[in-house]
Amino acid sequence: MRIDFRKLGTAASLVVGLVLLGAASTAWATPAALVTYISGTASRVRDGQSEALHTHSELQEGDKVVTAKGARLELTLADKSLLRMDGGSEVTLKTASFEGDDKKLSAKLSFGKIWAKVNSVLGGQSHFDVETQNAVAGVRGTTFRVDAKHDSSALVRVYAGAVAVLGTRTPRPSHEAGGARKEVPGPNEVSKTQYEKLLAAMMQVKVAANGDLGEPEAFTQKDEAKDSWVAFNQQRDAK
Questions:
Q1: Are residues 97 and 153 located together in one domain of the fold?
Q2: Which of 52, 54, 59, 128 is the most buried (most CB within 10 A)?
Q3: pTM: predicted TM-score of the whole model, two decimal places
Q4: 5 and 45, same domain (yes or no)
């Protein structure tokens, strides 16, 4: 039996090409976020396994990110928005989907500090939320920070745009046995203004450990003149 090595070579090349194409397709999968700046030590926890982060490390939906004391970390999301973490912070990317115009990010800040710079105004089904133990900051195109303390209290400050802050007294929808949804009231009868506050630029709101929202109040750059976390973010934003 004669073997045509020319045809065999062509077939082999085709097989190799398909294998390489498959590998390339996997390699080209877009990550939810990319580490674009790191100072100090930070790690990613995925499926119970911890791995040190470096510049260009990739993050996916469901990853938990932890920064050591004194560290600084910047994540560039798939839509070019920025999420920065101060030292001693823990953030979980609960939802991170950036397909087409349908952009969704939900980040859980267990403790520490986050600085977010949203790349574009969101609309439709898109959302960009930062959740703490007792509040959710929902964004529509803005720059803001969230500080979550170990006692479950929090502070939200807005530098540009607008943020709606929800306290934990918000009535939550629940499911009955037949699958129907109903509103379950909080512990006390409250008005919407008590559990939701809308913050404009240069406004802040404090969230108590029990989820109660304070009244929005103004703050000035002078209030943050000695805050190294603010100075770091302003320098990064300027770049």
A1: yes
A2: 128
A3: 0.75
A4: no
